[in-house]
Specification:
Layout: H1 2-7, H2 13-40
Length: 41
């Protein structure tokens, strides 16, 4: 979705870069949380 917003001109590349970095971090921590829950159950 973010890529589409950039291509359509709704987001500047600088804003996109920041949001993409936050998205990657969120995915990583979600993965870590899921892995933690899987090993404790």
């Amino acid at each position: 979705m973010l890529e589409v917003a950039v291509e359509l001109g709704y987001l500047k590349n600088e804003v996109y870069s920041g949001l993409e970095a936050q998205q990657k971090r969120a995915r990583f921590f979600t993965w870590k949380l899921q892995a933690s829950v899987r090993t404790t159950h």
